[in-house]
Design brief:
This protein has one domain. It contains eight helices and no strands. The protein is elongated.
C-alpha cells in the first residue's frame, strides 16, 4: 500500500512539474510557444505513460506530416477557445500523451456552458458571439487537419506495403513501424472523437443559453453549428485509416502507388 501511495505521489509530482512548464503564450495552431519542457521532456515522459497504459509507442523520428498532424490535432484535443484558459495545462498533458487522449474534454458535464453563462460579458450578444466564434474556429480548422491526416494515411499505406519487399528489414524495425502506424491511427480517431464531443458541447451550450439569455443572434449560432456538423460529417468523420498489418503480405508492388516502373515480382 505504501509503495502504491508513493507511486501516486510521484505521478502527481511529475504531472504538476510538467503542467508548470507549459507556456501560456500561444504560438502556431493555438499551442503554447516552444520550450524545453514541452518539446523535449514531455514527449519522452508521455511515451512512458502511454506504454504503461498499453498504448503503441514508436521511437522512429516523425515525418513532417506526422509532426504537423500532431500540431493540428492539438486544437481539437484542447478545450474549446472560450474555455481553454481553465485547463490549458491539461490539454498539454493530453497532447504529449501523459494523459489519455480519448477521454472527455470537460472535467464535469456542462463546464463549457457554465463558463459561457457565468462569465461577465458586456452584453447578451457578446455572450452568443463567443459561442459562435468558437464553433466557427473549429469549423475552419477541419480542412487543414483533414488534409494532413489524408497524407499521413497515404504514407502509412506505403509503409505497410513496403513490408512485402524490404528484405533486410529487422523484426524491431517492423515493430516500430507498426507502432507508428497505430499511433497515427489512434490520433486520427482521437480527433474524430474530440470533434464529435465538441459538437455535443456546443449544442448543450446553445440550448441552455437559449433558456438563460434568448436573443435573435441565436439563429446565427444554430446555423454555425449546423455548418460545423456538416463539414465534420463530410470530412473528419469520413476519414478511414489503413488497417495495421499483422503479417507481411505475399504480393510485391512498387514503393509508391502508381509507380509501375518499380514493380518487383517473384515467380
Amino acid at each position: 500500500m505504501t509503495g502504491r501511495l508513493h507511486g501516486k505521489a510521484l505521478t502527481a509530482a511529475v504531472l504538476a512539474a510538467i503542467a508548470g512548464g507549459c507556456a501560456q503564450i500561444e504560438g502556431d495552431f493555438g499551442r503554447p510557444r516552444p520550450n524545453v519542457v514541452r518539446d523535449e521532456a514531455m514527449p519522452v515522459i508521455g511515451g512512458a505513460f502511454a506504454a504503461v497504459r498499453g498504448e503503441p509507442v514508436s521511437v522512429f523520428a516523425m515525418t513532417d506530416d506526422e509532426r504537423q498532424l500532431r500540431d493540428r490535432a492539438y486544437a481539437f484535443l484542447a478545450p474549446p477557445e472560450g474555455w481553454k484558459f481553465l485547463s490549458l495545462p491539461v490539454a498539454e498533458l493530453r497532447a504529449a500523451r501523459v494523459l489519455p487522449t480519448d477521454g472527455p474534454l470537460e472535467p464535469t458535464p456542462g463546464a463549457y456552458t457554465n463558463a459561457l453563462v457565468s462569465y461577465q460579458y458586456r452584453s447578451t450578444t457578446a455572450r452568443w458571439q463567443r459561442l459562435i466564434d468558437d464553433i466557427r474556429s473549429d469549423r475552419d480548422r477541419i480542412g487543414p487537419v483533414v488534409r494532413v491526416a489524408e497524407h499521413v494515411i497515404a504514407m502509412d499505406r506505403v509503409r505497410r506495403d513496403s513490408f512485402q519487399y524490404v528484405q533486410t528489414m529487422t523484426a524491431p524495425e517492423r515493430d516500430q513501424a507498426v507502432a507508428r502506424m497505430e499511433e497515427n491511427a489512434r490520433l486520427i480517431d482521437d480527433v474524430r472523437f474530440a470533434l464529435a464531443q465538441r459538437i455535443a458541447i456546443y449544442r448543450h451550450a446553445m440550448e441552455h443559453l437559449l433558456v438563460a439569455q434568448p436573443a435573435p443572434i441565436a439563429v446565427e449560432a444554430e446555423r454555425a453549428l449546423k455548418s460545423l456538423q456538416e463539414r465534420a460529417e463530410s470530412s473528419v468523420f469520413a476519414l478511414r485509416t489503413e488497417p495495421v498489418p499483422v503479417a507481411p503480405p505475399s504480393a510485391q508492388t512498387g514503393y509508391f502507388p502508381g509507380a509501375k516502373d518499380r514493380v518487383i515480382r517473384k515467380d
